[in-house]
C-alpha cells in the first residue's frame, strides 16, 4: 500500500494537473484532459459539470484507475492512483453508463462476486449482500439474471454492486442519464444518503438542476480544462450570474474568448519570428 | 402511377435490383471484415498457408527419398543375381535419394504337397511377417517374392508392413524397380521371339501387407486423431475466447471488469484459464462422443471399402496425451483470447479468429503425412510438434528426447502466448476500444515504448 504523506490535506479525492492524451489513428494526438485540479472531502458531494466531450468521463476514469493518467497526480483516500491502483479500486465504488452488469449472472451472484473479490467472505459476505439487497430493495429480482431486469432494476443492482464493500469514495459518471423519473429520483436519494453517511461522492453531469440540488461544490470542465470550481455561491460571485445555466455559459464564453486571444497572440509571435 | 414508374425514368425490377446491389456492394467493400475475407485472405493468406504446407510435403518427400531401405529377395538361384541388380542401388548411384540394399532370404521349404499348397497363403504371409519383424541391421523393410521361388507362387509379390513408414518406402521403390525390370524382361522375351511386346502377358506384381488389422486401425487413428485433437481444442477455445473479450465489450461489461479489485494480470489469467477449460472440456467431450460412435462407423467404413481393419480408441494412449493436450489448450486459448481482444464486437471477434484458427489447424495436418515423424527438429515447430507427438503416443512409438523437446517448446509457446495476451489486454486502448484495432495498431501497441 502506498500512503501519501499529505495528499490534498485529507481530501478523499485529490487531483493535481491531471492530463490524459490519446494517440488516435485519424486525429493524431488527442488531449482529452489538459490539467484538471480538484479535491473532494469526506461527506461532500462534488459535481463535475460540462458538455459532452469536455473530459469529465476521462477524468473520472483516471480517478477510478480504468485509465492511467498521462501526467499529473491523483490521490484517492490517501492512495496515489498511479502507484497503487489496486488499493484505489478497493476504496472506491464506480458507476457509469459503461459499467454494465454481467447479463448471465443474477443480481445476488453479482454482489457475491464483487464482495468476494473485495475480500469479504463467510458471514460478513452474506451480511453485506443481504444489506445491499434490503437497502436497494432488490429482494424481488435478486435471483433473476441481470439480462432479464428492467433498466431501473439494473440500475439498482449496479448501485448495490458499487457499494457492496461500503467504499469511502463514490465516483459516478452521469448516474441519471437514461433513467426514468422514478429511477433518477432513487439515484438522487442514494447520493444524498452517501453524503449523510460521511462518504465522498464525485459525480459528473450535464443536468444543471441535479448539480444545483445535490452539489456542495461544483467544478466546471470544458475542453479538457477545469474552468472554475467552488460552491454555487462562489461561482455566482465569480461570474455575476444568478442561475447555474448562466454561470456555466459565462464561464464557457470567457474560456472561448481567452482561447481566441491566446491563439491570436501565438499567431502574432509566430509572424514576428518568421519576419 | 404504376409500380416501377415513380419518376421520369422508369426502372425495371432488374435495373432497380442492380442499383441496390451496387450500393450493397459498396457498403460491403467498405466493411473491413468483408475486405479481409473477400480479398486479403484469398489473395494473401491461404496461398501463403498452402505454400507452407507444400514446402512441408516437399520436406517430407525429401526425407522419404533420402532414406536407405533394405529389400529382401526370395528368388531361385537363376534369377536372384538379376533381381538383386534390378532392385538394389548403391549410394553413389542415387545421389538425390536413399540407397536400396538387398538381402537374399530363403524361406523354409515345404515338406509335402499339401503343405506347399498351404504355403501359398497363410504360411507365406506369416513367414514374411516374421522376417519383416526380425529386427537388426540386415532386417528387410520389404520382401519381394519372385514367381517360382516358393511353391505355388505365380506372381511377384511385395510383402510389407503398411503401418511402418520405412516398409512403405521400401515397397514403393520395389514396385517401381519391379515394373521397370518386368518391362525389360517382356521386351527381351518379345525380341527373342520376334513379336510385339504387347502380345505377351504382362508380369503381375502384387502387394501384401503383413500388418495386423488392429495395427492398421491404430495407424488410421494415429493419422486422424492428432488433427482432430488439435481442431477440437481450437474450436473449443474459439467461442469462449470471443465471448470473454470482444463479447464483453459488446455487452458493456469491459469497464466493470476493469474495476475488479484484483490485479489486472489475475483478470487476464482468469479469462485464459476459463477459455482453456472450455477447450479441454470440448476436447474431452468430443473424444468421448467419437469413442462412442466413430469406432463403429470406422469399422463399417473400412469394411465397406474392402478392408476389415479393427478400429478401437486407444484410451491408455489418449490418457498419456493429456499433459501435452493441456499445454496445447493453454497455448491456443491464450493466442485466441489475445487476438479476440482486438475486436470490439462478437461478430468482429469471430472474423478476426477465423484466419487465426487456420494457423493452428493447417499445420496440424502435418500429422497426416505418413513420412513425417517427431524428431529433434520437428519437435521445435509449434502445432506440428504437438500433432506429431500425439501421433507418436497413439502408436506407442515415443522417443524420450523429441518428446521432452516438444513439451519444452510447447511450454515455452504457451508462456509466450500468455505473455502476448496479457500484454495486449493490459493496454487500455485494447481493453476499451470502441472499434476493432488494425494489425498496424496492434504492432504499435506491442512495440516497446520510447518513453
TrEMBL record, chain A:
Q: Pfam families this protein is in?
A: ABC_tran
Recorded hits in Gene3D superfamilies, A to Z, give: P-loop containing nucleotide triphosphate hydrolases (3.40.50.300)
Q: Which UniProt keywords apply?
A: ATP-binding, Nodulation, Nucleotide-binding, Transport
Domain ABC transporter, residue spans: 13-248
Q: GO molecular-function annotation terms?
A: ATP binding; ATP hydrolysis activity
| Similarity-based family | Belongs to the ABC transporter superfamily.
Q: What is this protein called?
A: Putative ABC transporter ATP-binding protein YbhF
- From which organism does this entry originate? Saltatorellus ferox
Which gene name belongs to this protein? ybhF_1
TrEMBL record, chain B:
GO CC, sorted alphabetically, is:
membrane
Asked if the Swiss-Prot or TrEMBL record annotates the protein with the keyword Methyltransferase, the reply is no
Cite the GO molecular-function annotations of the record.
ABC-type transporter activity
Q: Which domain of life is it from?
A: Bacteria
Annotated ABC-2 type transporter transmembrane domain residues: 33-419
The organism's taxonomy opens as: Bacteria, Pseudomonadati, Planctomycetota, Planctomycetia, Planctomycetia incertae sedis
Name this protein carries in UniProt:
ABC-2 family transporter protein
Q: Which residues cross the membrane?
A: 34-54, 218-242, 272-298, 318-346, 358-381, 401-422
Where it sits in the cell: the answer is: Membrane
Which species expresses this protein natively?
A: Saltatorellus ferox
Assigned keywords, A-Z: Membrane, Transmembrane, Transmembrane helix
Main localisation, per the record? membrane
InterPro entries reported in the protein's UniProt record: ABC2_TM
Q: How does it sit in the membrane?
A: Multi-pass membrane protein
| One Pfam family here | ABC2_membrane_3
The UniProt record lists the keyword Transmembrane: yes
Amino acid at each position: 500500500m502506498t500512503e501519501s504523506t499529505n495528499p490534498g490535506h485529507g481530501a478523499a479525492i485529490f487531483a493535481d494537473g491531471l492530463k490524459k492524451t490519446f494517440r488516435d489513428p485519424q486525429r493524431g494526438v488527442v488531449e482529452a484532459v489538459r490539467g484538471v485540479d480538484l479535491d473532494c472531502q469526506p461527506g461532500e458531494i462534488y459535481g463535475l459539470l460540462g458538455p459532452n466531450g469536455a473530459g469529465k468521463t476521462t477524468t473520472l476514469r483516471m480517478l477510478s484507475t480504468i485509465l492511467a493518467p498521462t501526467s499529473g497526480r491523483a490521490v484517492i483516500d490517501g492512495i496515489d492512483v498511479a502507484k497503487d491502483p489496486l488499493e484505489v479500486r478497493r476504496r472506491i465504488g464506480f458507476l457509469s453508463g459503461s459499467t454494465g452488469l454481467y447479463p448471465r449472472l443474477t443480481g445476488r451472484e453479482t454482489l457475491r462476486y464483487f464482495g468476494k473479490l473485495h475480500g469479504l467472505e463467510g458471514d460478513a459476505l452474506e451480511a453485506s449482500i443481504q444489506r445491499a439487497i434490503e437497502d436497494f430493495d432488490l429482494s424481488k429480482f435478486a435471483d433473476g439474471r441481470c439480462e432479464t431486469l428492467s433498466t431501473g432494476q439494473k440500475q439498482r443492482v449496479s448501485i448495490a454492486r458499487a457499494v457492496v464493500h461500503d467504499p469511502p469514495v463514490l465516483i459516478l459518471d452521469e448516474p441519471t442519464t437514461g433513467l426514468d423519473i422514478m429511477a433518477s429520483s432513487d439515484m438522487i436519494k442514494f447520493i444524498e444518503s452517501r453524503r449523510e453517511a460521511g462518504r465522498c461522492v464525485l459525480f459528473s453531469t450535464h443536468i444543471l438542476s441535479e448539480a444545483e440540488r445535490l452539489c456542495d461544490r461544483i467544478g466546471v470542465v470544458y475542453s479538457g480544462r477545469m474552468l472554475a470550481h467552488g460552491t454555487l455561491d462562489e461561482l455566482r460571485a465569480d461570474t455575476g450570474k444568478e442561475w447555474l445555466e448562466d454561470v456555466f455559459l459565462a464561464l464557457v464564453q470567457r474560456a472561448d474568448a481567452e482561447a481566441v486571444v491566446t491563439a491570436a497572440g501565438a499567431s502574432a509571435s509566430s509572424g514576428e519570428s518568421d519576419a | 402511377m404504376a409500380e416501377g414508374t415513380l419518376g421520369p425514368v422508369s426502372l425495371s425490377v432488374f435495373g432497380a435490383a442492380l442499383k441496390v446491389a451496387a450500393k450493397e456492394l459498396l457498403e460491403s467493400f467498405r466493411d473491413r471484415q468483408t475486405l479481409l475475407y473477400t480479398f486479403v485472405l484469398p489473395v494473401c493468406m491461404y496461398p501463403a498457408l498452402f505454400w507452407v504446407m507444400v514446402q512441408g510435403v516437399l520436406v517430407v518427400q525429401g526425407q522419404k527419398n533420402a532414406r536407405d531401405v533394405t529389400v529382401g529377395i526370395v528368388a531361385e538361384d537363376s534369377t536372384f543375381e538379376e533381381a538383386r541388380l534390378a532392385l538394389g542401388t548403391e549410394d553413389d548411384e542415387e545421389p538425390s535419394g536413399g540407397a536400396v540394399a538387398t538381402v537374399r532370404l530363403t524361406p523354409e521349404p515345404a515338406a509335402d504337397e499339401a503343405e506347399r499348397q498351404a504355403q501359398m497363403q497363410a504360411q507365406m504371409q506369416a513367414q514374411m511377417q516374421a522376417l519383416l519383424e526380425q529386427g537388426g541391421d540386415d532386417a528387410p523393410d520389404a520382401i519381394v517374392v519372385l514367381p517360382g521361388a516358393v511353391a505355388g507362387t505365380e506372381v511377384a509379390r511385395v510383402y510389407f508392413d503398411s503401418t511402418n513408414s520405412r516398409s512403405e518406402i521400401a515397397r514403393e521403390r520395389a514396385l517401381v524397380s519391379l515394373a521397370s525390370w518386368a518391362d525389360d524382361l517382356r521386351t527381351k522375351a518379345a525380341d527373342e521371339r520376334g513379336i510385339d511386346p504387347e502380345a505377351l502377358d504382362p508380369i503381375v506384381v502384387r502387394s501384401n501387407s503383413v500388418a495386423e488389422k488392429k495395427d492398421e486401425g491404430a495407424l488410421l487413428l494415429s493419422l486422424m486423431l492428432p488433427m482432430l485433437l488439435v481442431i477440437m481444442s481450437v474450436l473449443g477455445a474459439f467461442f469462449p475466447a470471443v465471448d470473454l473479450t470482444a463479447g464483453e465489450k459488446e455487452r458493456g461489461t469491459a469497464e466493470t471488469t476493469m474495476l475488479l479489485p484484483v490485479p489486472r494480470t489475475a483478470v487476464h489469467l482468469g479469462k485464459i484459464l476459463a477459455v482453456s477449460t472450455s477447450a479441454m472440456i470440448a476436447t474431452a467431450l468430443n473424444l468421448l462422443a467419437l469413442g462412442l460412435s466413430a469406432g463403429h462407423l470406422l469399422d463399417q467404413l473400412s469394411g465397406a471399402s474392402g478392408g476389415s481393419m479393427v478400429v478401437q480408441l486407444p484410451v491408455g494412449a489418449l490418457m498419456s496425451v493429456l499433459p501435452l493436450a493441456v499445454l496445447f489448450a493453454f497455448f491456443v486459448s491464450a493466442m485466441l483470447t489475445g487476438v479476440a481482444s482486438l475486436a470490439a464486437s462478437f461478430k468482429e471477434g469471430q472474423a478476426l479468429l477465423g484466419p487465426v484458427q487456420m494457423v493452428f489447424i493447417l499445420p496440424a495436418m502435418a500429422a497426416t503425412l505418413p513420412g513425417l515423424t517427431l524428431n529433434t527438429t520437428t519437435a521445435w515447430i509449434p502445432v506440428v510438434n504437438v500433432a506429431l507427438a500425439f501421433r507418436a503416443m497413439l502408436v506407442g512409438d515415443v522417443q524420450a528426447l523429441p518428446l521432452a523437446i516438444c513439451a519444452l517448446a510447447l511450454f515455452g509457446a504457451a508462456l509466450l502466448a500468455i505473455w502476448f495476451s496479457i500484454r495486449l489486454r493490459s493496454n487500455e486502448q485494447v481493453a476499451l476500444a470502441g472499434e476493432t484495432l488494425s494489425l498496424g495498431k496492434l504492432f504499435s501497441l506491442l512495440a516497446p515504448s520510447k518513453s
